[in-house]
Protein: UDP-N-acetylenolpyruvoylglucosamine reductase
Amino acid sequence: MTQIQQNIPLRQYNTLGIDTVARYFAAFSSVNELSELIENNPNTGIAPLILGGGSNILFKNHMNGLVLKNDIPGLNIVKEDADHVYVKAGAGEVWHKFVQYCLQQNWAGVENLSLIPGCVGASPMQNIGAYGVEIKEVFEELEAFHVNDKTVQVFRAADCAFGYRESVFKGKYRNQFVILNVTYRLNKKPTFNTSYGAIGQELERMGVQDLSIQAVSQAVINIRTSKLPDPAKIGNAGSFFKNPSVDAAFYEQLKKAYPHLVGYPNADGTVKLAAGWLIEQSGWKGYRRGDAGVHEKQALVLVNYGNATGQDIYDLSEDVMKSVHSKFGVELEREVNVV
Structure:
């Protein structure tokens, strides 16, 4: 059985580089190991915290409960038809490694999601998305372990209640399930999505003549690396805030007051705003307070310059949110999970 360790530093397990400690810690690579670890949880009063890549989490405090690192591996084709390939990926697989695997096989659907940090297990939990694509568009099903019942359940797309960076695993079933694997439905014939953000401009700059999923992926990688800091060099969790949506009438009011405001229409009639632009216009871009700061190139990203505590980052995020609301009347919401 995998041994449960005590008083383990978690700095290397979260991309913000917060120096916190887990009272109990273990890693698991199978559902049997997971079941045993939960059965032997030394602190049954606190639900275990499941860690993947640690790229979307903010530790405000030390963790008194059991922290479990999901290392379940595997990339396997489970079925195939004329138009699609269905690939089951272990929840512990690195997301970008999975994307690269698909690109090598010429399977389309996840190229716009290149270089997103984290692991496969977080992809449906967050309904990760970037550059006009969300995971729900290629999601087939997942298997998840029920912490209390010790059973494995299958979730289809409708069961997951996917929303903008949301699913039942962040809300209704929070802390109740551990995602074991995810099956994706990938396309043999690509449908290119290059209209969002600067992808078209980047492809042009790259001199791409014949569009391919590999070219789209490289364009996304180029854009992300030019705007977002590398967690290996400076602690961050990528986009710290969600892009907020407002009703159309309020958007028109804001647009009159701020002509450079950009909005993207949602299917429900609301308009999505760029949180980074709102934060930058509120004067926060490049701001630093001790070792906590707002990134100099992308105001959507909060950074740890070395020794910021989780509370330092959280307090800064609170001030940013209050400032944006005061200036624009728009409520920001954190994308990262605060624990």
About this structure: The longest strand covers residues 177-187.
